Amino acid sequence: MLPKYSFIVPIYNEEETMYEMYRRISMVMDQMDGPVELCLVNDGSRDRSLQIMRELHQKDSRVVYLSLARNFGHQIAVTAGLNFVRGKVVVILDADLQDPPELIPDMVELWQQGYEIIYAQRTKRRKEGWFKRLTAYTFYRILKNLADVDIPTDTGDFCLLDRKVVDVLNSMPERNRYIRGLRSWIGFNQTAIKFERDPRFAGDVKYTFRKSFALAINGLVSFSKVPLRLSTYLGLLAAVASLLMSLLVLYWRIFVPHSPLTGITIVLMAIFFLSAVQLVSIGILGEYIGRIYEEVKQRPLYTLSEVAGFQDKKY
Ligand code: UDP
Ligand code: MG
């Protein structure tokens, strides 16, 4: 018998949270109305996470796991999980218990009412630093305004997906997997469920500033062409500005004797301004070209070093 529910948990150096995560999730698994598999995806952890996975799998055959051959990043880890799980209903949640597993039964209830995507939307973040809150708040609003699809604000990857949606996600070949964007792009019947985000149970944040920033740029570039247009606008603005400046400088040169503004200062300012505009535009172009390059290379999304439990069907 195949599982009815699959829970996917990406794991990167989470030895401190795993036992508690398993305890809380297994309480929820016991309440479900059908067989459940808990799919742990090791994203190249360097601590004991993989050993703990093996141990949990030994103890409880509902626990299955994948181990990526190196750290590929959260979005890819989730993608790998989505490729392997077999449930009719799939739930994605973080290992650090910031996404409360106790919310899953409420999500399932909405699924039974006919929704195919139920995403959790945080109304509050408890005990996260002001910098993270501010940057996340601003980013989600910028993204909402610029993206081609309506990506709801303040949603992470915590969500419930119907099998139909998982199949569509799996059939999308793109390498830059900004899952919350793809999830919106797909369509289907979607709804939000609100929750307050708890602080991390233990351990440090695994999304460093660099990873979060990369994720943000990825989200923007994958779902919007506005930045490209922005460089056109910047170019136009620079053109208008330089025309005005040239006229001014000419005017000063001809009609205002000994004007100090015609000297080196204004030349330098013009050089700085124009080169900034050029570099920013090239940078924006680069972001898009880099992604085209990634797509063209057609490398697999991840490499696996260990897979366990997916062949067993005893529950
Ligand atoms: N994670 C991962 N690979 C990474 C970084 C994070 O699989 O390279 C996992 C991590 O183990 C956790 C989830 O992604 O289960 C969210 O990470 P974290 O809690 O550090 O981020 P935040 O809560 O800030 O979104
Ligand atoms: Mg977290």
TrEMBL record:
Pfam families recorded: Glycos_transf_2
Keyword rRNA processing tagged: no
Single GO MF annotation: glycosyltransferase activity
Residue ranges occupied by any Glycosyltransferase 2-like domain in the UniProt entry: 6-167
Keywords in alphabetical order: Cell membrane, Glycosyltransferase, Membrane, Transferase, Transmembrane, Transmembrane helix
Source organism superkingdom: Bacteria
Compartments, record wording: Cell membrane
UniProt cross-references to InterPro entries, sorted A to Z: Glyco_trans_2-like, Glycosyltransferase_2, Nucleotide-diphossugar_trans
Any one of the GO CC terms: plasma membrane
Keyword Transmembrane set for record: yes
Bilayer topology term: Multi-pass membrane protein
Residue ranges of the TM segments: 233-254, 266-289
Family: Belongs to the glycosyltransferase 2 family. GtrB subfamily.
Protein name (record): Glycosyltransferase 2-like domain-containing protein
Taxonomic source organism: Richelia sinica FACHB-800
Lineage, uppermost ranks: Bacteria, Bacillati, Cyanobacteriota, Cyanophyceae, Nostocales
